[in-house]
Write a structure and sequence with these properties.
Helix content is about 35%, strand content about 20%. The protein is of the alpha/beta class. The strands form two sheets. The protein has a seven-stranded mixed β-sheet. A six-stranded parallel β-sheet has the order 3-2-1-4-5-6, with helices on both faces. Helix 6 packs across helix 8. The N and C termini lie far apart (about 45 Å). The chain binds nicotinamide-adenine-dinucleotide. Nicotinamide-adenine-dinucleotide (NAD) binds next to helix 1 and helix 10.
Length: about 350
């Protein structure tokens, strides 16, 4: 259970310490005046991660508890970070709302629209702060692209090409509970598209295929996908995704306007191979996964969340702001399943 060691400390419970949660723990523990409690459905894992963090960061306060122990004593905490599998988010968000605890939750909010709307309503009724983990909003290159678009430095934006491609597929247990490639993976691109362009998507069309592990088919998912999006100003967008991009982890966004282009991710570690004679770019080891590629963003977004908990800043990505990316992901999934263009107005419930 929690013990208060530092009067000034902000008391954060981190729930779920798997692939992403371990890194979130490492980011949180380096923030000054933090008292961190590690929770996991596997108590041995929680204890191991807490012990490792305390050893790696002497002088910090890290302990462990079960999620039930945390919610039994909400007065011992100032905020919750949820990094459990997507299928568990709704229950945990509803528990945060009942306990009136501000929370950060990994994307997506929930696996489906009804669950997401239940979470939004509960958060609004509780009047608590919320932040959803769209970490690209904290990346300097996406921020610069956004600035140039909003300042008119590209002229009129007509086309966007973007992608998120994993080098290796996630394990089957993750795929089973992920909500599928559009909601789990391309949802980042859908969110950042809105954030960078300031426009909304009007209609989508998508293809998907299973070209690798059979378990994607077992769970109604695909491991290769392409979506075409038409935005409300007729900007045309292509979004690619893959779970089998052998060259490396590839996240890029190319925004083309009438006077200039802005490209995110065109740097020495981009997993591209030029076959042009004499061209040596890119010349570094390619990115291998999201943890390496976005480490700096996870650190910044969690510092931002602690500032939200401390009342220093408003949330940079409140739960309501995560809804539209889910709408787009659902429209894209529906388009692939039904083999037809889908308007966003078919998905939005208002
Ligand atoms: N923002 C990003 O770039 C990014 C990247 C990867 C994953 N994610 C998201 O993070 C979440 C977790 O993904 P992951 O890859 O780390 O999953 P994971 O399966 O590797 O880890 C999940 C952890 O949560 C624990 N857990 C499961 N149910 C629990 C419960 N009810 N209470 C407490 N602990 C529980 C598991 O024991 C495990 O340690 C997912 O929602 C995923 O979409 C986001």
């Amino acid at each position: 259970m929690t013990q208060q060691h530092n009067e000034k400390a902000t008391r954060i419970a981190l729930i779920g310490v798997g692939r992403i949660g371990v890194g979130h723990g490492a980011a949180l523990v380096t923030i000054p005046d933090i008292h961190l409690t590690i929770c996991d459905v596997d108590p041995h894992r929680a204890q191991q991660v807490a012990d490792d963090l305390a050893t790696q960061h002497p002088g910090t306060t890290v302990n462990h508890a079960t999620p039930d122990e945390v919610f039994a004593h909400p007065e011992h905490y100032d905020g919750i970070v949820i990094a459990t599998p997507t299928a568990t988010h709704e229950e945990l968000i509803l528990r945060c709302a009942a306990a009136k605890l501000p929370f950060f939750c990994e994307k997506p909010v929930a696996v489906d629209l009804d669950g997401t709307l239940r979470c939004i309503r509960a958060v609004q009724a509780a009047g608590i702060a919320s932040q959803i983990g769209f970490q690209r909003r904290f990346d300097p290159a996406y921020a610069e692209a956004r600035r140039r678009v909003h300042n008119g430095e590209l002229g009129e934006v007509h086309r966007v090409h973007m992608m998120t491609c994993d080098q290796n597929p996630p394990p089957e247990y993750f795929v089973a509970e992920s909500g599928g490639i559009w909601r789990d993976c391309l949802i980042h691109d859908f969110d950042i598209l809105r954030w960078v362009t300031g426009r909304e998507v009007d209609e989508v069309f998508a293809y998907g295929a299973v070209r690798g592990a059979d378990y994607f088919r077992t769970h109604g998912d695909v491991d290769e996908g392409v979506a075409l999006l038409r935005m409300d100003d007729d900007t045309l967008v292509t979004a690619h995704t893959s779970r089998n991009n052998g060259q490396g982890y590839d996240v890029r966004m190319e925004i083309s306007g009438t006077t200039a282009n802005a490209t995110v991710g065109l740097e020495p570690k981009v997993p591209l191979v030029s076959v042009e004679p004499g061209v040596t770019f890119p010349d570094d080891e390619p990115w291998v996964d999201f943890i390496a590629r976005f480490r700096h963003c996870y650190d910044i977004e969690l510092r931002a969340f602690v500032d939200v908990v401390r009342g220093i800043t408003p949330s940079p990505c409140p739960i309501e702001d995560a809804l539209e990316a889910l709408h787009i992901a659902l429209a894209v999934g529906k388009s692939r399943e039904e083999g037809r263009p889908v308007k966003l107005s078919e998905i939005r419930q208002h």
